[in-house]
Each structure stands twice: as structure tokens, then as C-alpha cells.
Specification:
The chain has 268 residues and is an alpha/beta fold. It has two domains: 4-62, no CATH class; 72-266, Rossmann fold (3-Layer(aba) Sandwich), CATH 3.40.50.150. It has helices at residues 6-13, 19-30, 34-38, 47-61, 66-70, 94-102, 120-128, 141-151, 207-219, 235-244; strands at 4-5, 44-45, 72-75, 78-81, 110-114, 133-138, 157-159, 171-176, 220-229, 248-254, 260-266. It has a seven-stranded mixed beta sheet with strand order 7-6-5-8-9-11-10, with helices on both faces. A hairpin with a 5-residue loop joins β10 (248-254) and β11. α1 (6-13) crosses α2 and α6 packs parallel to α7. The longest helix has 15 residues, at 47-61. It is elongated and about 65 Å long.
């Protein structure tokens, strides 16, 4: 039997999954780009690779994210390792990186990525600002193993809850993408392949954010910044939490879709 071609494999795959996903999976398997696929539709694909594609398609059809199937995810300017032990880095979180890089500063900073997960934020910041001292913490050993692969030796990693790895008044900036989905939220069904502890935080989704707002008051140096990602409908609540805790210059920022996605606040 003749080998399947690029075109026939994509045609079969798109009966089960979106074409974009099919193209990404096949291009990765062949070590090429999606653009290459368009001009090589009649090229044969060896039987072993065709079978591997079919297996990947079935995993995607069952709801497994493409990033977990491939084991990598692009974030900022980096390609990061991902596993089921961490949240998959998302484009929305790049807003935190942008805000951190734009924050008013006077010289190199000490920055903590609290609850680093895959290490995406820490890796991005350290790649952009090698003069900064970027630290990262997480309570999950498995997550820290992934972060170590993505951050290398540039970022010291600490196992612990949020801020317990750093001394009082020792950090210029705290950046965090904490869990912020309410427990029992119906959208969680679509996120079954990611760790629930990285997704949910109390009945209203604000438990971890509240803990960070309070704890950062003791950790930040005077004039330091707290940057938090949150849900599109939580901006008003997060701003109120920061203001009631004594932060100044509290600003809610929108993502590319126009949704309130991150709050930035300064400790006086």
C-alpha cells in the first residue's frame, strides 16, 4: 500500500479536529512548518509517522490540548516545555511580562514570579532583562522541575507557598498568575488536562489573589510593584483589594481582546 500523503492525512485529520490543530500536529511530526505543508500536499508520509499522527489526532479529539501533545508551547519569544504538571502558558499572560518591563524603575530589580508553574513569566523576564535578579517560587515540586527546564540556571527556584521563600522588604516587584477560577465553575470541564490547583481558588476565585495582596505588603520594598493576572470580570474586585490593603497607583489593564486581565499596584 502506498504511503499516505500530506494532503490525505490532513483531510482525514480534519474529520476529527480543527484544521489548524491538524496542521500544527503534522508539521511538528515532520519537523517542518505549516507553510511547508501547503506546498507539499502530494509528498508521501512514512507509515510510522502517519500512524503517530493518527494517535495524536485521537488525543486532540478527546480534548487534550495541543501543547500537551507536543510537549511545548510558545510564550513571549520563547518555546517552553510543558507537561500536565503545570498550567499551559497562555498569550493573555504575556500582558504581565509587558507591564513588568514597562514599570518605572531605577536600576536593576529583584523580581519574584510567585507560583511560577512552568516558569514562563520568570523565563521571559530573565531573557529580556539579564541584569535583573529574577526569582521564582511554587509549592509543586513537579512544576518546579518543568520550570527548571525552561529557566535554566538563570533563575533561582524555591519550593514553598507564594512568598515564603523571600525575606521581608527584599523584592522590588512581585508578578503572579495565580489560580483565579471559582470552584465549581462550569468552564473547568474544558481544562481537565491541567492541574486543578493551578486553576481554582475558593468560592469566588479570589482566595490566592487576596493572599498575595496581603503578603506582598511585607515583602515589597517601598515603591515596589505588585502585578497580578485575574479573570476578565475580577478587575474591580482586585483593585478594591489592593486599595483597601494600602497600595497606591492601582491600575487595571486590558488584554488584546479588551478584557480586564491584570492589575498593577505600587506599595508606598
Amino acid at each position: 500500500m502506498a504511503d499516505a500523503t500530506v494532503a490525505t492525512l490532513l483531510s482525514a485529520a480534519t474529520q476529527r479536529i480543527d484544521r489548524l490543530d491538524a496542521e500544527i500536529l503534522l508539521a511538528n511530526l515532520l519537523g517542518t512548518t505549516r507553510a511547508w505543508l501547503f506546498s507539499h500536499g502530494e509528498d508521501p508520509v512514512p507509515a510510522d509517522r502517519a500512524e503517530r499522527l493518527r494517535a495524536r489526532v485521537e488525543r486532540r479529539a478527546a480534548g487534550e490540548p495541543t501543547a500537551l501533545i507536543l510537549g511545548v508551547q510558545d510564550f513571549w519569544t520563547l518555546t517552553l516545555k510543558v507537561t500536565g504538571d503545570t498550567l499551559i502558558p497562555r498569550p493573555d499572560t504575556e500582558l504581565l511580562v509587558e507591564l513588568a518591563l514597562q514599570a518605572p524603575q531605577s536600576g536593576p530589580l529583584t523580581v519574584l514570579d510567585a507560583g511560577t508553574g512552568s516558569g514562563a513569566i520568570a523565563a521571559a523576564l530573565s531573557s529580556e532583562r539579564p541584569d535583573w535578579r529574577v526569582l521564582a517560587s511554587d509549592c509543586s515540586i513537579a512544576a518546579l522541575r518543568v520550570a527548571a527546564c525552561n529557566c535554566g540556571k538563570r533563575v533561582p527556584l524555591f519550593c514553598g507557598s507564594w512568598l515564603q521563600c523571600v525575606a521581608p522588604r527584599s523584592v522590588d516587584m512581585i508578578v503572579s498568575n495565580p489560580p483565579y477560577i471559582a470552584e465549581g465553575d462550569p468552564h473547568l470541564d474544558a481544562l481537565q488536562f491541567e492541574p486543578i490547583t493551578a486553576l481554582t481558588s475558593g468560592a469566588d476565585g479570589l482566595a490566592a489573589i487576596g493572599e498575595l495582596v496581603e503578603g506582598s505588603r511585607e515583602t515589597l520594598r517601598p515603591g515596589g510593584w505588585l502585578l497580578l493576572e485575574h479573570g476578565f470580570d475580577q478587575g474591580r474586585q482586585v483593585k478594591a483589594l489592593c486599595e483597601s490593603a494600602g497600595y497606591t497607583d492601582v491600575t487595571v489593564h486590558t488584554d488584546l481582546a479588551g478584557h480586564e486581565r491584570a492589575t498593577m499596584a505600587q506599595w508606598p
